[in-house]
Amino acid sequence: MKSGVDVILVGDSVGMVVLGYPDTTLVTMDEMVHHTRAVARGATRALILADMPYRSYETCEQAVANARRLIDAGAHAVKLEGGSRACRRSARSWRRGFPRWHTSA
Fold first, then answer.
1. Which residues, in sequence order, are CB contacts of 78 under 8 Å at separation 6+?
2. Rounded distance between C-alpha atoms, residue 24 and residue 67, angstroms
3. Residue 85 backbone dihedrals phi, psi, to 5 degrees
4. Cα angle 91-43-18, degrees, rounded to a multiple of 5
5. Low-confidence ranges of the chain (pLDDT < 50)
6. N or C: which end of the chain has fewer CB atoms below 10 A?
7. What was the pLDDT predicted at 102?
8. What whole-number distance in Å separates Cα of residue 104 and Cα of residue 30?
């Protein structure tokens, strides 16, 4: 079925909506990879944007490694939160050769 959806967000809200957690801070990287992979299997046209879960991007190295896991699972882009701190980290990550990096303030 063609829905005309341009972007699908695989959000860390999966913690509350699907996994029964009280908030998003308990969602793990493994869970985000699992759900991103499931969405990627079903999505044929839309851009898949996956959330980086809480504490999955505390260092630049960790951010790049975890973002790559989401990309490998089928995400076309990743999203992280944190304003200017996240912007600085994403800029460093991009300079290290990770071209698909987006931030939200």
1. 49, 50, 51, 52, 67, 70, 71, 100, 101, 102
2. 18
3. -60, -45
4. 85
5. 101-105
6. N
7. 47
8. 22
Task: Please tell me the distance from the alpha carbon of residue 84 to that of residue 94, in angstroms, as a whole number.
Answer: 15
Q: Which residues contact residue 66 at a Cβ distance below 8 angstroms, ignoring those fewer than 6 apart?
A: 29, 52, 56, 57
d(CA 2, CA 84): 38
- Rounded CA separation 62/41 (Å): 26
Cα-based angle 12, 18, 21 (whole degrees, multiple of 5)? 70
Task: Please give the structure tokens belonging to residue 52.
Answer: 């980086």
Q: Is the pTM of this model over 0.85?
A: no
